[in-house]
Please model this.
Amino acid sequence: METVEALAKLFWHDPVSPGGASLTPTDYPPLAAAGYTRAPDQHSPPRRSRPKIRGVEGAARWYGRARSNTVVRMARLCVNIDHVATLRQARRGVEPDPVWAAVEAELGGADGITFHLREDRRHMQDHDVDRLREVVQGPLNFELAAVDAIIDFACRIRPAMAMLVPERREEVTTEGGLVVAGQVSRLRDVVAKFADHGIRASAFIDAQERQIDAARACGFQVCEIHTGPWAIAHNTHHRLDHPEVARELERIADGGRSILAAGMQFNAGHGLNYRNVGPIAALPDVTELHIGHSIVSRAVFDGLREAVREMKRLIVEAST
Model:
């Protein structure tokens, strides 16, 4: 944390501006290497306050998890910064900078940073990824399609994890999980290439047994369940006891159990927000939640650091 705070004191939101005082290697070498040469006049350190914890007995009963005095493992929060880049690319300018967003997210409590380098480069750019690799202190999760050029790029960057996702140029956002079944041979080779470069491989999939079985056959270490259908159902009906909401939640829970039984890590993400994250965060043995759009949307009004803190508080609350 001391290193990240030192970074925040030195970091400025635009790269290499005229008149900026150059950083020396003794200040923060990765920052200087990433092309940042100005420091803010002031940068207040993050507030340290104990989260207010309230009970989640209803959610606990819903998932059949008995509450006890034993320690419950809390899901890690990985913040997706793509939509900061989306805003920048609306003007093809230099602000807001997604790399600075990653620093703010870490200062707000993010356990990792997620980004998607699309083939059409609609938001994140190659230089963003290079700078993230230099600056981010926690693990990086690199989302990508199974495209050779981007696979090679990921192998050069060597993130902690590479998550294969489906990708269509016509889509506004990812519309569903990766169809692993039917392309096991191809994806097995991709997973092996990641392994050769020390990268954990993750598959973003729908909560379907055949996709989970195929992911295991490919050698994926991690499966992230697509929570989009849950988010749509919850945002439509606003009640856990609504049949459609209950059905989607149980589908994710069943998928998580199957992933764990197959010896893989259970992650979840897509469409999660401040209203629907609690039940997903309370699922037993979910390791990571990957959340981006709702945090960036909240940050427009509250600031990114505070938006991440609030999401982190909700995850703590749901896991307690």
Remarks:
- Residues 1-44 form one domain.
- Confidence is low (pLDDT under 50) at residues 1-71.
